[in-house]
Design brief:
Blueprint: E1 3-4, H1 5-8, H2 19-31, H3 37-52, E2 60-63, E3 77-81, E4 87-91, E5 99-103, H4 115-131, H5 139-146, H6 148-157, E6 160-162, H7 169-182, H8 195-209, E7 212-217, E8 222-232, E9 235-239, E10 247-248, E11 260-262, E12 280-281, H9 282-289, H10 291-296, H11 298-303, E13 311-316, E14 319-323, E15 328-335, E16 340-345, E17 351-355, E18 363-370, E19 375-381
Antiparallel strand pairs: 1-8, 2-3, 3-4, 4-5, 5-10, 6-8, 7-8, 7-11, 8-9, 12-19, 13-14, 14-17, 15-16, 15-18, 18-19
Amino acid sequence: MRVQFGKYLLRTIRSGFTCAFLLWCCCGMINAETVSQKQASNLAQLFFNEANGRVTPPVKMVYNGRYLTTNRLFVPFYIYNNPSGGFVIISAENKTFPILGYSLKEYFNPEKLGEKEKALLTSYARDIEMIRYDSSVPESAIKAWTDFPGYISGILKSDYQATDPTLSMQEATDRIYYLIDSGKAQETASDIYSPDQWIDLINKELNIHKSVAIGLIEPSGSVSPAIIYGKKGDYYRIELDRRNQWFMRLLPSEILSSAQLADFSFPAEIPLSLEEEEPFTFLDSLISDNHYIMDNQPELSDLMIINENPVVNGIGGGHYSITIPENVIQSSVYNLSGALTNIRTYKSTNTAHIDLSPEPAGFYFALLLGESGKTYGIKLSR
């Protein structure tokens, strides 16, 4: 079951490892951004050999996630099945952790990939796509790639802590709906935290209540509710379309936190250094920041003079919920050159939903037309 923002926002990756392989890892970090299918296959084979304590039959690549990326331009990861049982997801990017998820019991069947399973894999693909343009140095990921035997050993020897979910999927869905509907989603969105902080919050909730309701926000704006109900090291048991025997990372990297929501039973403390810039009104800042637009787009400027303090809720990932004092008829979004990038119409609601996730990073302004004919201007950021 998936939540569509437009419909529900108001309801709302052992010691037998050779020096040559270690040298390959180090060189790969320096000379290439991505991991080849052959290299990933070797890593997958090593993983299953270590997990089973013996040389296992050759792994088989069954899925690469290419169609989950923008315009299917690159491979974000490789998924290998082990003939003896199980699968492993190897990242195709050496700026993330090598293993994104695995199972020692279940095979991965791409033909039976559910919507929520697809949403989680899409979040990996999205972060991997973005991290390739990030200049940050991922120290933990580098260590994992250069000490792959130790990395595998750490995964397999981690304590396993899990119980059956204390939430039903319907209860988890209701909680995520409530977050969106109440406007509290912006306070419990992963985008406003560092990956370490987000994982710490999830672990705290998991330790207290044994289950955590989460929402996986897709590029389309859909939200897929799921339940975290256990962990093994940095890998989590997540009920998605069904109960499974998977262990999955919440986030593929230590640098970026993908678009997730979570229902926390305690107040979220947002670090000031990581707060997103709050959306602000046109009259407060846009005139002083963007004289070019005022000088060159007179018709647009005339429309934007009326402003009665709309209530703006940033949900994360470029999604906004904007409420005005009257019913909204239409929303129009413009970039800084005055070009119209998005237009939507509404019926019987005073809240407009703006999705900037497909747009390049930068500032935008939205014009909301009320049923009285008044126009409300708001500056937004992506």
